[in-house]
Fold:
Amino acid sequence: MSSDTQFEKELAAIDLLGPEPSDEHSRELYYIGKLRKLIADRSQAAGRPLTACTVTFGCQMNARDSEKLIGILIKSGFAPTESEDADFVIFNTCTVRDNADQRTFGRLGRISHLKKKNPHMKVAICGCMMQEKGNVEKVRKSYPFVDLIFGTHNIYRFAQYLWEVYDTDRKVTEIWDKTDKIVENLPVERKYPYKSGINIMFGCDNFCSYCIVPYVRGRERSRDPREILRECENLARDGVTEIMLLGQNVNSYGKGLENPISFAQLLEEVCKVEGIRRVRFMTPHPKDLSYDLIRVIRDNPKVARHVHLPLQSGSDRILKKMNRHYTKEQFIALAQKIREEIPDVAITTDIIVGFPGETAQDVDDTVDVIKRVQFDNAYTFIYSPRRGTPAAKMPDQVPADVVKEGFDRVLLTVQENARTRSALLEGRVMEGLVEELNSQKEGYVTCRLSNNMIVHVPGDASLIGTYQPVRLEECRGFYYFGHIEKEA
Ligand code: SAH
Ligand code: SF4
Ligand code: F3S
Structure:
């Protein structure tokens, strides 16, 4: 049975005129059912379907949350749109660095004139930023037109809040400090038909001293492996061939479950799901990446040849202050082991420059690790103090000009190395999943290789979602131009 049919069957079994059901899953379905009638009536009155736009900031986990928000909006009767000139706009926010906050406030500011134009328009804001009290107060004060505010822990109550906002026309704000619940099987609208993220766990218990995620996403909770496998099977049935298992530290997956299971075991099981051709995962923490996991990647060709291994800093002194639980040499040894065991693997990373107390010598250490590991690519971030984290209170916050010097040096090394690594693939034929039309170059499509490398090749929309042998011809630093190799 398709997931849509299953959903309709479950919804039909709910008494919409009766009282609110007590279990979370049925309760959300109950409100979706009620919204359906309300939104259909309002659409009829407007003479057109009401539209809804979801704006997403942040990581893959937020992207997956947004797919759940869109799923609920569509099932409630809204027509999805990319344009913020919509009847309902929801911002799903990130607060990992200050520039993420600023971008959200900028977008909120711009939307006020749209709301003046369309008095029926409703605006909502949710996600990580809203778990910070100061931000909620700022929204209430500076953007009083916002109709609905909720956080990360109660996102599964979205249908209920949406109903309240439309039914009563009142403003709703509800933020929870925590949750221990995982509500399964609410509707989801996938952005891509052929690939999907899957949450395997929520929250984070690592408390890296610079990071706000544990405060805004709460304690670590793993989903039951049977639920994860069932979701994979359903996705495969719906035509998905590539999945990405998502968690802040996937290596700690399984702790606290009734029958504990390791991430390596879960990955192995996921590879067995028929119809799934590629499995990715994000993010493994270097402190507890097991040899078992390396072995599972090595022995299962379905697992993508890509490990994202966040370094953050190459200096032992800074790593300690960051609470990362590994040293420079341990990290290098781990990366070498991964490269040794898994030929063709790409290793990418995240690096923070400008952590409190960081000196030019610390940056030298980071540069040294980049050179020795030869990352295939890296995201480089300027340290951003986050309220409530230990690092924000540390003395020796680094002056901006010193940070800039270190950042430029790190970025240059990253780019040089990435170029060298990419060039090694020139002339090879590798399997690419055709993901989308190339927006820059007409007549071209964009493929992603197992190692996460992007290759642009001539082709059209009919190829999207297919796997093709692609020849890597012209290296452009981080990506390639090539062509689809005709079968011999
Ligand atoms: N759980 C993942 C990543 C979470 S956030 C992990 O442990 O790798 C993604 C990246 O944002 C981090 O890897 C880190 O490099 C960066 N980041 C997190 N907090 C930051 C801060 N306060 N300032 C700058 N970068 C930060
Ligand atoms: Fe943040 Fe560290 Fe948790 Fe990653 S592992 S989310 S960097 S606290
Ligand atoms: Fe941002 Fe929240 Fe992800 S803070 S990085 S959206 S977990």
